[in-house]
């Protein structure tokens, strides 16, 4: 595994992603759901909304880094607000 | 009747998952690891945090490459999609000539990328290439290694030559699946040729066209081999698209950290655009059915 050059932050990052995927898989099995149509006027399931959240969060972090350039952890707060909005309205 | 959902079938895709893990997920994870570190070789890494991302977001080099890439993809889509539809509309519907056209059209698709590059590299040369020599004899100054406009034109014409067939073949398949009844109804209504295209053929082709656009966009956005062979990214940086710049950074300069950060951002852009295309495609399908 040495060639993969692991670091603690990246390991934690992937652990969180893996945990999210497992959680949503379990949720999908335990509480099956029907897709719904939100403000994007596309049908989404919980998994779709997770994908939109994660992809959007990546761009939010990059935008914060490019525009603000300091206090990166605060970008995660923006992501959290974004995630709530996505799960509520999309 | 409600069918009971059995998700156990998902286990059948496990082998594919394993394969993808080795060919895509693990390399991608490694790239993420590299992107936050610096190395001077010898497999020794030093923590760099988000410095590479910050550098790249501020570097003109990446934004310029992205801009060139966007312009290139936009141009080839704007040419290949209408041209492909036009070709498909004019192809014979059945008989010997239909098969003949299909075979001829698929020939460029079978040629490997680097061979396409070599063909056009020689074809465009002023001393021995048919195209370059002819243009030169006509008094038109054409040199893709020195002239910005000539380099771009060569790459665009090459891509159109290579890939318009794909769009045409997909559009042709879409056209073939339209039942005759639609055309008969149009004839009864005395619809014009344009109306037939606008209200019957185009809507019926929409699904395959979206696939064609998605495929062409993805391929052109990741284009590497052809410009590498023909222009090598030059003259200057005129045709240095994203992947060419990335390879220069990763293998030319051996800057693994910045290159990893670069590829992650590149990947995110591709992921976003593919998701948009995919969502539009699926929703079009749903609206149709």
TrEMBL record, chain A:
> What stretches pass through the bilayer?
6-29, 50-67, 73-89
Which Pfam families does UniProt cross-reference here? Answer: DUF2160 (PF09928)
Q: What InterPro entries does UniProt report for this protein, alphabetically?
A: DUF2160_TM (IPR018678)
* Keyword Transmembrane helix annotated: yes
**This protein's UniProt keywords:** Membrane, Transmembrane, Transmembrane helix
Name of the protein this chain belongs to? DUF2160 domain-containing protein
Can you name the source organism? Thalassococcus profundi
From TrEMBL, chain B:
Q: Which Gene3D superfamilies match?
A: MetI-like
Q: Name one Pfam family in it.
A: BPD_transp_1
This protein's UniProt keywords: Membrane, Transmembrane, Transmembrane helix, Transport
Residues of the ABC transmembrane type-1 domain: 66-277
Which parts of the chain span the membrane according to its record? Answer: 12-36, 70-89, 96-123, 149-175, 196-218, 264-284
Q: Name one GO biological process term.
A: transmembrane transport
Family matches, as CDD domains: TM_PBP2 (cd06261)
- Location, primary (coarse class): membrane
The membrane topology of this protein is: Multi-pass membrane protein
GO CC terms of this entry: plasma membrane
User: What are the subcellular locations of this protein?
Assistant: Cell membrane
Q: Which family does it belong to?
A: Belongs to the binding-protein-dependent transport system permease family.
Against PANTHER family, the record matches this protein to: GLUCOSE IMPORT SYSTEM PERMEASE PROTEIN GLCT, TREHALOSE TRANSPORT SYSTEM PERMEASE PROTEIN SUGA
Q: What is this protein called?
A: Sugar ABC transporter permease
Name the lineage: Bacteria, Pseudomonadati, Pseudomonadota, Alphaproteobacteria, Rhodobacterales
